Amino acid sequence: MQRRLRSASMKKTRVRVPSGTVMRFRRKKPNYMQCGSCGAKMVRKRLRQSGVAKLSKIGKRPERPLPHLCPGCMREQMKMRARGL
Ligand SMILES: [Zn+2]
């Protein structure tokens, strides 16, 4: 098997063809981004590199602190930091 097909982002499927069964590979569809703390589903799906290239400069970078957390968890985290816990 080619090295690039062994990636976790590739999905392996069996396809029946006249000569028997063959393996076919395709890229997995991107899933929703998840909160790093509670695992809640975020608004946007993960982007492929081609999708990132189409975004504006402001769309690429986070506009609020702790972008890996959902809004609720971010608020809690900011409170904890302000209180020095
Ligand atoms: Zn969360």
In short:
The protein is of the alpha+beta class.
Beta-strand fraction estimate: 25-35%
**Rough outline:** elongated
Please report the number of helical segments: 3
Main beta-sheet strand count, sense and barrel state: 2 strands, antiparallel
Number of domains: 2
What is the averaged pLDDT score? 90
Rg measurement, Å: 20 Å
Q: Going across the major beta sheet, what is the strand order?
A: 1-2
Spell out the blueprint of helices and strands.
Elements: E1 10-17, E2 20-27, E3 32-34, E4 41-45, H1 49-54, H2 57-60, H3 71-83
Antiparallel strand pairs: 1-2, 3-4
The structure holds zinc ion.
Zinc ion (ZN) binds at residues 35, 37-38, 40, 69-70, 72-73.
Structure explained in plain terms:
The mean pLDDT is 90. With 85 residues, the protein is an alpha+beta fold. It has three helices and four strands. The protein starts with 9 loop residues before the first strand and ends with a helix. A hairpin with a 6-residue loop joins β3 and β4. The chain has two domains: 30 residues, no CATH class; 46 residues, no CATH class. The protein is elongated and about 70 Å long. The strands form two sheets. A two-stranded antiparallel sheet has the order 1-2. A two-stranded antiparallel ribbon has the order 3-4. It binds zinc ion. Zinc ion (ZN) binds next to α3.
